[in-house]
Each structure stands twice: as C-alpha cells, then as structure tokens.
C-alpha cells in the first residue's frame, strides 16, 4: 500500500469523520439476543423446510438416496432434453454414471459465449440454509468458478443432506470462508420490477433444480 | 387522586364539547377533575413545524399549570405524544446548548403524569365498560400518534365494544394516516386532501353513521372533508360517545353548563 | 402557492402527481402489494425486534468508529488484491471511475443498480467522457430506455405499469442494442424475457463492470451485493475489471454482523426470506471473476451528516425502501416529487443532509410528511425518521429559509398569546362571538389551502375555559 499524500481525499475524509464523531457518546453495546435459529433441532424437519422453501421460490426439488442419485441426474437431464452438461472439477464421477449426455469441461476456462451455449450445469454446493431456502456456492470442489452457474440456463445442484444443511443464516456464516467468492442462491433468477409482481427467470439460470441426497 | 384535564388548545377554542364530554365521563366514573386555567397549548404545532425554541415557554407553562396533580388527562393522542416524546428532547437539547437543566427538569416532572384519555380509563381506572349508551353504527379511526407513538393498542376498541347499542364496524385501511399532519395540511394541501379523500372513501364504505376518533385535530380534517362532500357521516370524538348514556343519549345534557352543575 | 405564511413552496411536483390517476393507480397497486408481503415476511421471525435493535446498534457503533473500520477495510481489500480509492465528492468519484475505465481502453461498461452511482450521476459523467454505461437491472433499464428518472429505491420504475413498459421496450430497445421481439406482449414474464435477450449480448462482451455494494466487511475486506435478477452476478463476475462505488457508511465491522443484515434486508425490501442471489467477493480470486478490482469509497456529504447528532441516524439506512412502501405521502406524491435519487421518507431526511437545503425542493423535503410514523415502524434499523424530519425543519426555519419570515412572525405572536392565557381566552371568545361572520371558504392563500378541500369547523358559542368557569 502506498502512503497517501498529505491532504489527499483519504486523509480529508478520515479527518472529517474524526471531527464529526469526536464529541459523540459511545453507543450501547450490540446485544446478540436474537435467535441462532428459528427451528427446532430436528434434521428431518429441517430438510422438509429446506425443500419447502426452495420450492416456494420456484426451485424444482428432488429427494433421493445416494444410490439413486446417478439415475435421478440422468432422468432430470433426459426430461429437460439437455445435450451438453458443464461439469466443474471435483464433481464425483459416479454422479454422472446415469447419463450419456456430452460433458463440457472448463479447461481451458470457457469464454462467456461458450458458457452460454451449454444446456445445463451440474454442481455440488458448500452448504444449504433451510430457513431461507438457500444454497451456497463458494467455488469449492464440484462447484467451479462463479460464471459456470450463472450463464447456462439450467442449474442442477446436489446437496448432501447429512452434512451440508444448516438451519439459519447465523449458522451458515461461521462455516463459510470469507476469502472465497460466494454466491448464495435462493430459487432461480427473479424480478419484481414490474408492478412489484414477482416473475422467475431473468438473467441467471431460469431453471434451478436441487437434489437433496441422503 | 388529583386529576387535571388538559383538553388541548384545539378543543378549548374550537371543540369544547369534547372537553365537556371528558368531564361528564370522568365525573360519572367518580373522578373529580380540575381545569387549571394557566394551561394553553402543548406546543405541538410549533415544535413539529420547526420552532423548537418557541415551544420552550410552553413546556414550562405546562409543567407549572399541572404541578401537583397526580394525573393530567387529555383527549388527544398527538398532544400526549408531544409531551411524552418531545418534551424530554426539548429539555435535553436546551441542556446541550448550555442553557441549563431547567427545561429538562420541567419536562421530567410532567411527562410521567400525562395520560391520553383511553390510557387513563383502561390503565388507571381499570375500566373498559364506562356505562355508555350510543345506539349507532360506528367505525373507528386510530390516529397515527395514538396508534404508533403511544401504542394505545386495543384500548379505544375495548371501550367502544363495551358501549351499549353501539355497532362497531371495521375501517378499511384504518392504520393509514388521514393526511392532516398539522401544518402539513396547509403546506402540502394537495397531498393532504388526497389522503383525506381516501380516508373518507374508506370510512363511507363501512356504511357507518359515525367515524370515531380520539384526536380532534385529525377529525377537523376528516370531518371537514365529510361536510364538504355532504356525506351521510359525521366525525365524533371517542369521549363524546363514551359520555352518552341512556339518560342522555345525545349528549345535550352534559354540554350545557346548567345541566352539568346540577348533575 | 406563493403565500409567504406557508413558508415553503410545497413539495413542488406533488400537486400534479395527486391528479395523475394512472401514476396514482400504479403506485397504490405496487406499494400495497409489497406492504402486505413485507408484513408477512417479517412476521415469520419472532425475534424481529431483537434483530432490528442489533442492526441499529451495529450501525451506530460502526459510525462512531467509522475511521477505524474504513482503514481496516482498506487494508484487507488491498491485501486481497483490490485497489482502494477515496472520493470526497461526486466530481472526484466520477473522475476516478472515468479514468479507470479509460485506462482499460474500453468505451462501454455494464452496471448493476447502485444508489451511490445514481447519486453522483456517474452515467452522465461517463457519457461526457465518451463512455456508455448500460444499466442492467430491469427497472433501471426501463428508466434508461424511457429517458426517465428513477422514482423508487428498490423498484426505480414503480411509476410505470406493464403497458407503459411494453411501449418503452418496443420503441427504444433497438436504439441501444438488440430490439424487442416482434409483437411483444405486456406480461411481466414476457417483458423480463425481452430484457434478458437485450442485455445478454452486452453481458457476454463486457470488459468493465460497475457496481455499488450493500455491505462491506472491514475485518475481511469482503463486499456483498444483494440482488434478484442475476444482472448483478453478470456484472460482478464476467468483466475483467470491476469498479465498485460505495458510500463510506456501508461498512460493517465483522463477518458475523452479516447474520443480522442478511435477515433484515431481504424481508424488508423484496419481502422475501432471502433474495435470489447474494454475491460476496474479497479482492480478486485467481481464475474466478474480474482480474482487477477497484473500490471507490464515497463521502459526498456523508461526513456532514455524521456530524449531526440527530441526523446521523440516517446513515444507518440499508436502502431497503420499506419506508417508501408504507408512506402515504410517497404513495400519492410519487418518487419524482422528491427531486432526488432517494425518494420517500428516507429521501426526505437523507437528501437535505447530503445536499444541504439551499434549493427550494431540498428545503421543502423535511416538510413533506405528516409525521405519521409508519416509516419508523417498518425501518429495519430503527431510524426515527419523524424525529429527524422535525430536526431538519428546525434547521430550515433557523436558516430563515425562503418565505419563513412571515411564518416566524406569526409563530412569535402566537407564542406570546399562548403564554398569556387571559389574552388567549379573549381571542377565543372574540372568535366565537363573530362566528356568524366566518365564510365557508376563505380568500387568502393559507386559508384556501385548507378550505379548497375541507370545510372549516363551526366555532362554538364559547371556548371551553369559559364554559368551565361558568359551570363551577
């Protein structure tokens, strides 16, 4: 970091802030007496809530066992008629054992227009938040860089229910690494810009399918 | 229990009937009230228009006029809120400006004793059935200051529901401001009138004969809009409804000096 | 409305707005829809009051030590590969951004909706340098194509209904890029689809993105953008260079603080449990997103606001727009009447503090409220907007703003009267005795302001104080 010149805007702004608050009293301390979660500690109910909240914001939700996952993925892609599937590094090979669809890899990194030409993208996630119906991607294994889940029109995301579902936002944040780029996704792209009427599907994937496995 | 009435300057000058109704009601409930003649105005219009310093003598006057009373009862949510919310601010600001503690002390001495009428009835007297009789279809408009600043909650409604003969009908959009807003009504007359028109439209949709409120400043605006439209509805203060009885169902009795003194 | 007693020119555009039936219908429909949804979303959390208090206190404590948090933020953004710039005012911020864009050799940028860049009129400044800024938020696109001004913080085109949007898209999209599809209908879904097609080519070729941010985390150097459509993700991830212009009050001390605001904001703004997309980034990441990241920290009047003991609470604002959606004055006057990118109750306290009250519009803003308190009730960070409004009214009056001289004289005379109960009683008595002479409509402007729409009350036979004296 270069040392800013004296009289720079940085120094001026900081000086103005100090002058503005120098006589101000210390505000009262922050009480964190809000809830850590609004749900009872019951994994089965949490999973139902996650499924319900995802669906409420128009994600398509599937639930299956680990053994059924390849077949479920194969069926989803077949029913959609996807011919190409973007597969980020780290997606387990067996997830793909139930489909013959053409796999597209991000090696070398694909230009945006190439991403735009892919039918679907398959990822895992970092975690999911039941209360808000959110899946969190943090560019970890099986998730790829952010653009991969943005440009294609169909995003298929697998959530491992045994260890990836938390109840609430306060429970999600401590499990995430702020240094990693993150995308929190709650349903497909949407807008309420016309008459505050919610419409799903603008610039991000218009279809979000979430498979809850376990 | 020494109880003083602060009818408010608006009611003193324009709508004495409301103050008279409060006197009749409280005396019927066994409460002796006094009207200290040194009172004038709480200063709400001046303060809310930006004239804080012009309000300061009125803070002192109010504190002085009502010194020694256990309760100061006022049939106005906004004037109660003025005292409760803004008097301490006025005192604190004077202190910050290096003008001593006098105003803050005056405010602190008065604030806890000032109660809006329905607070006094429900919280202090512990009544919701005041023995009133009012055989009319009534809708209730909860004015903003009573609703949001004082948090009167269901007190007015409980009082109205206990009135014999009264049919209470829900006011659509009840929680929305009527558009009066003190000097707002003349500084922004178009928006004020548009809000008033919507309030009146909602009120008329209830089919009620009477729109009841607990703040006559709002009712001046709503009532004036109703009268301009020659609408089949009149705006009436809650106190005037609660003061009516089977013996005096129209409230003509308590509104005249002679009848009152013989009561 | 020129009578000097009124003090202010009333809220200049409001009169026209109250008579514009289409505007009124659009606003009423939209604000009422979102109002009810917000109430339901908030009611889902039984600890809302605690979250609100925590949000308020976090912001207050942050503002009290804003210098420290900004320096820490700067260190952490820099350590993560970003470059931090400081802009004292709009001109400096615009200069910084224009130079950064020109350094890339690009002539166009894609923008995700940002109040800060609207506040500094960045698009106009870039245009003056030959750089085209494409707004990518659906509502901002409607505003940009319609050569219009935003009228709401969250939904800038709230004053337009679907039919108007269809007409704008059909007429204007072709001038900016891919034209609207033939025979475009007016369902929101079709209109969103038209925007998707129109903007996609711009996203895919964009080399420079410009954003604001909802939050900046000092301890980690992380920026957060909360959005719905995915245009934000496009602007934040696809370009090679990202420039974020953010007000200095948007900093939060800790990563954990987000647990409060990511609950408060979505439910208050779009009335959702969580908005569809929230992006977090910390400087630059190898192989993921922009290679160059610039953060422009903007003052532009914020430190003046911070210096005001009562007014500084406006800096807690997280731009949710819940206050607009419940405001009866906003609903009837419309966002344009506020003469600023910040309309509604929050605008009425923010604009006069950021810009001062020298202009007639800005001086009228603190008076554009009935003080009904609906805004305060829904504010997720408990900004007591009525308190600040009254405080700013005092500043306007104290400055002896245009037209307040007569009003001051009237108040002074009134003050004397109200401090002399006997004289007050005499005046009341005189008014009552002459009541038969009072006309139904009065001629002077101030009286007309009342009697144009309302009857005056009939005065009583005698004031209360006389009745009391006689009946004792």
UniProtKB/TrEMBL annotation, chain A:
Membrane-spanning residues? none
Matching InterPro entries, A to Z?
FTHF_cligase-like_sf (IPR024185), LUD_dom (IPR003741), NagB/RpiA_transferase-like (IPR037171)
What Pfam families does the record tag this protein with?
Answer: LUD_dom
**Please, which domain of life does this record's source organism belong to?**
Bacteria
Q: Domain LUD, which positions?
A: 51-213
Instruction: Please give the PANTHER family that the UniProt record associates with this protein.
Output: LACTATE UTILIZATION PROTEIN C
The name of this protein is Lactate utilization protein C
| The species this protein was found in | Streptacidiphilus cavernicola
From TrEMBL, chain B:
The Cysteine-rich domain extends over 3-83, 138-222
Which InterPro entries does this one have?
A: Cys_rich_dom
The family database entries (PANTHER family) matched by this protein are listed as: LACTATE UTILIZATION PROTEIN A (PTHR30296:SF0), UNCHARACTERIZED PROTEIN YKGE (PTHR30296)
Designated name of the protein: (Fe-S)-binding protein
TrEMBL record, chain C:
- Residue ranges for the region (Disordered) are 1-20
Q: Taking every annotated instance into account, which residue ranges of this chain make up the domain Lactate utilization protein B C-terminal?
A: 394-470
Keyword Transport recorded: yes
- SUPFAM superfamilies named among the record's database cross-references: 4Fe-4S ferredoxins (SSF54862), NagB/RpiA/CoA transferase-like (SSF100950)
Q: Where is the LUD domain?
A: 72-286
Q: Where is the 4Fe-4S ferredoxin-type domain?
A: 314-383
Keywords in alphabetical order: 4Fe-4S, Electron transport, Iron, Iron-sulfur, Metal-binding, Repeat, Transport
InterPro entries with a match to the protein in the record: 4Fe4S_Fe-S-bd (IPR017896), FTHF_cligase-like_sf (IPR024185), Helical_ferredxn (IPR009051), LUD_dom (IPR003741), LutB/LldF (IPR004452), LutB_C (IPR024569), NagB/RpiA_transferase-like (IPR037171)
Question: Looking at the keywords, is Cell division present?
Answer: no
Q: Which Gene3D superfamilies match?
A: Alpha-helical ferredoxin (1.10.1060.10), NagB/RpiA/CoA transferase-like (3.40.50.10420)
Pfam families per the UniProt record, alphabetical = Fer4_8 (PF13183), LUD_dom (PF02589), LutB_C (PF11870)
Query: What PANTHER family does this protein map onto?
Result: LACTATE UTILIZATION PROTEIN B
The name this protein carries in UniProt is: Lactate utilization protein B
């Amino acid at each position: 970091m270069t040392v800013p010149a004296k009289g720079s805007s940085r120094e001026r702004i900081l000086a103005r802030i100090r002058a503005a608050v120098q006589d101000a009293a210390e505000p009262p301390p922050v009480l964190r007496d809000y809830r850590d979660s609004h749900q009872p500690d019951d994994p089965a109910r949490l999973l139902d809530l996650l499924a319900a909240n995802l669906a409420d914001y128009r994600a398509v939700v599937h639930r299956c066992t680990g053994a059924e996952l390849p077949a479920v993925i194969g069926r989803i892609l077949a029913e959609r008629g996807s011919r190409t599937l973007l597969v980020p590094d780290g997606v387990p090979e067996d997830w793909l054992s139930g489909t013959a669809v053409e796999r597209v890899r991000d090696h070398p990194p694909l230009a945006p227009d190439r991403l735009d030409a892919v039918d679907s993208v398959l990822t895992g996630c970092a975690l999911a938040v039941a209360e808000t119906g959110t899946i969190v991607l943090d560019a970890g294994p099986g998730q790829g860089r952010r653009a991969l889940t943005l440009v294609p029109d169909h995003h298929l995301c697998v959530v491992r229910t045994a260890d990836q579902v938390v109840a609430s936002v306060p429970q999600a944040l401590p499990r995430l690494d702020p240094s990693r780029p993150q995308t929190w996704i709650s349903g497909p792209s949407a807008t309420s810009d016309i008459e505050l009427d919610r419409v799903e599907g603008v610039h991000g994937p218009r279809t979000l399918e979430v498979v809850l496995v376990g | 229990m020494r109880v003083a009435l602060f009818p408010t300057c608006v009611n003193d000058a324009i709508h004495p009937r409301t103050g008279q109704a409060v006197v009749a009601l409280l005396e019927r409930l066994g409460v002796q009230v006094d009207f200290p003649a040194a009172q004038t105005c709480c200063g709400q219009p001046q303060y809310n228009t930006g004239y804080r310093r012009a309000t300061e003598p009125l803070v002192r006057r109010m504190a002085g006029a009502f010194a020694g009373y256990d309760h100061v009862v006022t049939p106005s949510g906004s004037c109660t809120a003025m005292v409760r919310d803004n008097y301490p601010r006025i005192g604190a600001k004077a202190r910050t400006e290096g003008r001593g503690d006098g105003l803050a002390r005056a405010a602190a001495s008065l604030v806890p004793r000032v109660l809006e009428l329905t607070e006094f009835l429900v919280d202090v007297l512990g009544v919701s059935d005041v023995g009133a009789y009012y055989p009319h279809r009534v809708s209730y408009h909860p004015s903003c200051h009573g609703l949001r600043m004082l948090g009167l909650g269901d007190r007015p409604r409980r009082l109205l529901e206990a009135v014999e003969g009264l049919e209470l009908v829900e006011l659509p959009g009840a929680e929305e401001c009527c558009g009066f807003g003190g000097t707002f009504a003349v500084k922004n007359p178009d928006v004020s009138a548009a809000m008033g028109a919507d309030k009146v439209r909602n009120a008329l949709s209830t089919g009620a004969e009477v729109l009841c409120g607990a703040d006559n400043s709002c009712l001046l605006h709503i009532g004036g809009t109703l009268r301009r439209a020659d609408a089949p509805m009149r705006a009436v203060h809650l106190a005037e409804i609660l003061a009516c009885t089977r013996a005096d169902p129209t409230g003509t009795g308590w509104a005249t000096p002679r009848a009152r003194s013989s009561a | 409305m020129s009578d000097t007693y009124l003090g202010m020119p009333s809220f200049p555009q409001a009169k026209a707005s109250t008579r514009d039936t289409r505007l009124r219908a659009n606003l009423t429909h939209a604000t009422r829809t979102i109002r009810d949804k917000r109430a339901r979303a908030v009611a889902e959390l039984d600890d809302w009051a605690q979250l609100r208090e925590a949000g308020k206190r976090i912001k207050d404590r942050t503002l009290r030590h804003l210098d420290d948090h900004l320096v820490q933020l700067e260190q952490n953004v820099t350590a993560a590969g970003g470059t931090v710039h400081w802009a004292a005012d709009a001109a400096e911020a615009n200069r910084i951004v224009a130079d950064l864009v020109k350094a890339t050799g690009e002539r166009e940028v894609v923008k995700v909706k940002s109040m800060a860049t609207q506040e500094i009129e960045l698009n106009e400044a870039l245009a003056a340098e030959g750089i085209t800024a494409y707004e990518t938020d659906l509502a901002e696109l409607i505003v940009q194509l319609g050569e219009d001004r935003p009228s709401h913080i969250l939904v800038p085109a709230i004053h337009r209904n679907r039919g108007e949007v269809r007409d704008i898209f059909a007429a204007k999209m072709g001038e900016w890029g891919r034209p609207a599809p033939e025979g475009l209908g007016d369902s929101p879904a079709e209109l969103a689809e038209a925007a998707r097609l129109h903007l996609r080519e711009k996203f895919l070729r964009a080399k420079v993105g410009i954003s604001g941010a909802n939050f900046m985390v000092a301890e980690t150097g992380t920026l957060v953008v909360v959005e719905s459509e995915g245009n934000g993700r496009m602007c934040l991830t696809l370009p090679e260079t990202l420039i974020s212009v953010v007000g200095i009050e948007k900093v939060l001390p800790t990563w954990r603080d987000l647990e409060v605001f990511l609950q408060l904001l979505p439910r208050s703004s779009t009335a959702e449990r969580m908005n569809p997309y929230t992006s977090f980034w910390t400087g630059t990441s190898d192989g993921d997103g922009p290679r160059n990241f610039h953060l422009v920290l903007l003052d532009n009047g914020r430190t003046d606001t911070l210096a005001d003991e009562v007014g500084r609470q406006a800096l807690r604002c997280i731009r949710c727009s819940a206050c607009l959606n419940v405001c009866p004055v906003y609903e009837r006057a419309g966002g344009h009447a506020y003469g600023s990118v910040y309309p509604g109750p929050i605008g009425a306290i923010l604009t006069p503090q950021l810009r001062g009250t020298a202009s007639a519009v800005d001086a009228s803003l603190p008076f554009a409220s009935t003080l009904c308190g609906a805004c305060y009730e829904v504010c997720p960070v408990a900004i007591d907007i009525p308190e600040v409004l009254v405080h700013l009214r005092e500043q306007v009056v104290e400055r002896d703003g245009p037209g307040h001289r007569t009003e001051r004289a009237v108040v002074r005379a009134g003050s004397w009267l109200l401090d002399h109960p006997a004289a007050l009683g005499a005046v009341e008595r005189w008014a009552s005795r002459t009541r038969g002479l009072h006309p139904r409509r009065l001629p002077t402007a101030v009286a007309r302001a009342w009697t144009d729409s309302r009857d005056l009350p009939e005065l009583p036979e005698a004031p209360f104080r006389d009745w009391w004296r006689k009946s004792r």
